[in-house]
Amino acid sequence: MGFGKNNVLHGNHFRKDWQRRVKTWFDQPGRKLRRRTARKTKAATLGVRPLELLRPAVRAQTVRYNRKVREGRGFTLAELKAAGVGRKEARGVGIVVDHRRRNLSEEGKKVNVERLLAYKTKLIVFPRKAGKPKKGDSTGADLTAPTTRVAVPLPETYSAEAPRKITAEEREFNAFRTLRVARANQRHEGSRKARQAKKDEEEAAKKK
């Protein structure tokens, strides 16, 4: 085959022995079995412990999702203090701590403190040496009590109310109007206070 004009002669190498450079994964089934066996061995050496770490119950972000309760990153230091759990002790018993999180409501804090207290009542800490329990380790009948590895469930977001008839007062209540009035009162509160203060000063001046 000829080449037109003064172009570079290209060397097309079509015999590159590609079979030597192909990476195969024929050992994948064996690796899968090995990983599974390693997980079983690790679980047996760790003993009886929860399947998951304990995390707080928090509200999801934005107005669209804030009615949903999910697991957060970790408990605040205030929540741990209220439940009587040390921050270093918490990490040893499967409680996640997040020092950056802040409690924005008393209700949310109360829910997580109750969650911690419920976890503490169910917690059994086996001593490292059977005959020498340390401070915080479980002793006596607790060591022979039945154990479970199920995590503490998230609290219910709301309790369903039984169906009932709408009252006459509820029928007459105008929610939109009430909200608009409350909004207007908040907006004009400063100017109304200033007007009232000026009026009081004028009346006081007249009395003098």
UniProtKB/TrEMBL annotation:
Pfam families: Ribosomal_L13e. Keywords: Ribonucleoprotein, Ribosomal protein. The keyword Ribonucleoprotein applies. InterPro entries: Ribosomal_eL13, Ribosomal_eL13_CS. PROSITE patterns: RIBOSOMAL_L13E. GO terms for cellular component: cytosolic large ribosomal subunit. Residues 181-208 are annotated as: Disordered. The keyword DNA repair does not apply. It comes from the Eukaryota. GO terms for biological process: translation. GO terms for molecular function: RNA binding; structural constituent of ribosome. Transmembrane segments: none annotated. Residues 186-208 have a biased composition (Basic and acidic residues). Belongs to the eukaryotic ribosomal protein eL13 family. This is 60S ribosomal protein L13.
